[in-house]
Structure formats: structure tokens, C-alpha cells
Here is the input.
Amino acid sequence: MKDSALATSFIEQVLSWASTHVVEIIIFLSVFVEISKIKLNPISAIVKFIFKPIRKEITELGDKIQKDMDELKKELKEEINSIKQDQEMEKEAINQLIYSDEMAEISRIRWEIVEFSNSIENGQLHVRDEYRHIKDDYKRYDALNKKHELDNGVVDEEIEKIEKHYEENKNGTSIFF
Here is the structure.
């Protein structure tokens, strides 16, 4: 009987202590025990409760960053397209300048060839280097005409006169002919 009274007294003390420390016992047991039907896990609930606003802020921040990135991509695409258009306009302007310069070069060479031919017809003397210079100019003139699909016309006749005069006089001993 003594043992049963001792056991009863011990149980009463344990229950008395347990009744004053109910919260601590539940927290301690929740670390190791999870009831399937109720799923009472105070630590996970506390963690979820604490981190729920943080997760919400992180999600909102991620959404804002994604929106900002999409806007930045859109702005960059627009800027790239604007730069491409500017480059196309600049390229067109450059092509116009090149065309204008080449047309001026054609006109200059044409004038030089016609003037050289006229000087020969008027009896003016020239050195071999001047003839070579005119032939080189004619090659450049011919290439530009082919590039722009233009006709030579008068210049072909003048260059034939110059070449004929050169062939007739190249074997002479004089520097000028």
C-alpha cells in the first residue's frame, strides 16, 4: 500500500507540475510530435506567421523588379530601333555625299580630258607623264561611269584622239610632243 500511495503522490505532483507548465509541454511535444489529422505544429505556425509578411514583401519586390525589367527591355528596344533609324539616315546621307563626290569627280575628269584633247588640237606640247595622267584619269572615269551606269559619249572620242596622238609621237626623241 505504501508503494501505491507513493505512486499516487508522485502522479499528483507530476499532474500539478504539468498543469502549471501546459504551454511549455505543448511546445516541447510539438517539436517531436505532429498529429496528422489536426497538424498542430506550433513552431511551424509561428515561423509561417513571422515570415508571411516577409514572403509577401519578397514576392511584391520580385514582381516590381520583373515589371521594371520589362519596362527597361521595352525602352532599350525602342532606343535600339531609334539608333538603327538614325544610322540608316546617316548611311543614306553618306551615300548621297559619296554619289555627289563621284559625280563631281566624273565632271572634273571629263573636263580635264576634253581640255587636254583641245590643247593637243591647238598644237600645245605635253610630256609623257601628262599622257599617263590622262590615261589614269580615264580609267577612274570609266570605272565611275560603269558603277553609276552612265555613258561615256564625248569622252570616248576625245580619249581616242589623245591615244592616237600619243602613238604617233611616242617614239620621237623630244620630251614634248
Q: What stands out?
A: The chain has two domains: 1-40, 41-169.
